[in-house]
Amino acid sequence: MAKYFVGIRLPRQFEEDCEFWRRKFGAPRTIAHITLIPPFVWESTEGGDLLKLLGHETNSIRPFLVSGRGGLGSFDKRVFFVNVELGADFKAAQQRLAHGLSHAGVPPRKAPLPAPHYFSDAALA
Predict the structure, then answer these.
(1) How far is Cα 110 from Cα 105, in angstroms, rounded to an integer?
(2) pLDDT of the residue at 100
(3) How far apart are CA 6 and CA 119, in angstroms?
(4) For the residues 43-63, what does the mean pLDDT come to?
(5) Phi, psi of 15, deg, nearest 5
(6) pTM for the complete prediction?
(7) Where are the alpha helices (DSSP H) in 12-124?
(8) Which pLDDT belongs to residue 77?
(9) Nearest-CA neighbor of 120 among 92, 89, 81, 93?
(10) Mean pLDDT, residues 53-69
(11) C-alpha closest to that of 53 among 68, 63, 43, 64
(12) 42-46, 77-81, 93-97, 108-112: lowest mean pLDDT where?
């Protein structure tokens, strides 16, 4: 049993910009990303099963646009984020992944976290 999340890495230039700010604020070393699925527990002892599931669920996801809304923020003392705007294609990708994980035994969140905790940020921590 292990804890995972599903995220998307940023384009190299944005990742480098975020790394600058991560260091400036002293956030823990985690690659900057946009979270598709917040942390969840995977009960199987086989991580390969999760990779197969994610591969199957992501093979039909269409490219989507991410644009900046401006501004930095933080939650928990360790996570800094950049506000971004995510469209319908991003939300469809989230729903597809959440549906696939649900069928594999990962319960959906009972209530979504308040924005921008997971679904509308590029995390720097």
Answers:
(1) 14
(2) 92
(3) 11
(4) 83
(5) -60, -40
(6) 0.74
(7) 12-25, 47-58, 88-103
(8) 66
(9) 81
(10) 84
(11) 43
(12) 108-112
pLDDT of residue 46: 66
Q: Which fold has domain 2-123?
A: Cyclic Phosphodiesterase; Chain: A, (3.90.1140)
* Residue 9, both tokens: 């890495």
With residue 5 as reference, give the H or E element that holds it: strand 2-9
* Residue 101 to residue 105: CA distance in whole angstroms: 6
Two tokens, residue 25: 């604020």
CA distance 6 to 61: 14
Count how many Cα atoms sit within 13 Å of the Cα of residue 115 in the half-sphere of its side chain: 8
Q: Domains of the chain: which residue ranges?
A: 2-123
Helix, strand counts (H, E) of the chain: 3, 5
